TrEMBL record:
It comes from Bacteroides coprosuis DSM 18011. Residues 2-153 form the N-acetyltransferase domain. It comes from the Bacteria. The keyword Transit peptide does not apply. Keywords: Transferase. This is GCN5-related N-acetyltransferase. InterPro entries: Acyl_CoA_acyltransferase, GNAT_dom. PROSITE patterns: GNAT. One of its GO terms (molecular function) is acyltransferase activity, transferring groups other than amino-acyl groups. The keyword Zinc does not apply. Pfam families: Acetyltransf_1.
Length: 177
């Protein structure tokens, strides 16, 4: 049975699994410095660092932020040997049962097959791709901003909610005023 378990850095084995999966699944410019990630994991009430377990065995990670009007999925990855085995769908189904607000996530622009497949994956689970231009701010000093797109599931509308969502993401997640 799939479960999401919120972890802290004191849960050493699970934390090390999740950190390794983060650093091997995402380019450096798409995650914050690990010391900052550790601080958020242990002391930021808005942030949840979750390990995905299947019958107690680590299979993935899901981090998200409770931003009041919506949840923002920051990172979601399944361990590479276990991809395309239904875990992603199961995690999204479980998340839908556990959270009571709309979901937002960032996806890479559809410039390559991997990005296109990722967008199609989320569309199959009722996420809508927003056409608004969006840039993920740099996670690191002197880091690169990354062109992205937003996707949503639930009662959010790009015309009505885009500015508010960007403001909340930039302030809370990326610490930009």
């Amino acid at each position: 049975m799939i479960e999401l378990k919120r972890i802290t850095t004191s849960d050493t084995a699970h934390y090390e699994f999740v950190e390794h999966l983060l650093t091997t699944s995402f380019p450096l410019e798409e995650y914050r410095p690990l010391k900052q990630w550790m601080t958020h994991t242990d002391s930021n009430d808005l942030f949840q660092n979750n390990i995905v377990l299947d019958e107690g065995k680590p299979v993935g990670l899901l981090t998200y932020w409770n931003l009041g009007k919506f949840y923002y999925i920051e990172h979601f990855a399944i361990s590479e040997p276990l991809r395309n085995k239904g875990y992603g769908q199961n995690v999204l189904d479980l998340l839908e049962k556990e959270v009571d607000m709309p979901l937002i996530l960032e996806v890479e622009t559809p410039d390559n097959e991997t990005a296109k497949r990722r967008i199609e994956f989320y569309k199959r689970y009722n996420f809508t791709l927003w056409a608004n231009e969006y840039t993920q701010p740099p996670y690191r000093p002197n880091g690169m901003a990354v062109p992205m797109l937003l996707m949503s599931r639930g009662d959010l509308n790009p015309e009505r909610d885009y500015d508010e969502i960007c403001e909340k993401l930039y302030q809370e997640v990326y610490n930009i005023e």
